[in-house]
Amino acid sequence: MNFEIVQEESNYRLNEVSVFCKVKEKFGGLSNMSNAFPVSVNGHDIANTEALYQACRFPDHTNIQNEILFLKSPMGAKMKSKRYSNYSPLIDSSSPASAI
Q1: Positive or negative, the Cα torsion across 55, 60, 64, 70?
Q2: 70 occurs within a structural domain
Q3: Which listed residue, 51, 66, 78, 90, has the most CB atoms within 10 A of its CB?
Q4: 4: number of CA atoms within 13 Å, CB side?
């Protein structure tokens, strides 16, 4: 699977955007790595959006999805998905991004 990366320059007005880098900083609750806003999908409660994002990387492996979705920690969800990265169709193991 090959994806073409298109980079477009965008200009933003600082007074119209929210910038956040860390969960404990201003607007950090909007980060995937925050537990501030749990989500519910099809009647299933998920502790954070990072777990949802990571689980969606494994559409053909419900057992992996369940392991990830039941984790309460966003970082735990990210680390668990790394363990199974070779099962994800979204990452080409030969690409530099797979080393992240």
Answers
A1: positive
A2: yes
A3: 51
A4: 2
Per-residue pLDDT reduced to its tens digit, 66-81: 999 999 999 999 999 9
For the chain, helix, strand, coil in percent to 5 are 40, 5, 55
In a domain, 8, yes or no: no
Q: Residue 26's domain spans which residues?
A: 19-90
- What pLDDT digit, counting tens, does each position of 11-60 carry? 989 899 988 889 999 999 999 999 999 999 999 999 999 999 999 999 99
Tokens of 15: 């007074």
- Whether residue 26 is contained in a domain is answered as yes
With beta carbons less than 8 A apart as the criterion, state whether 83 and 61 touch: no
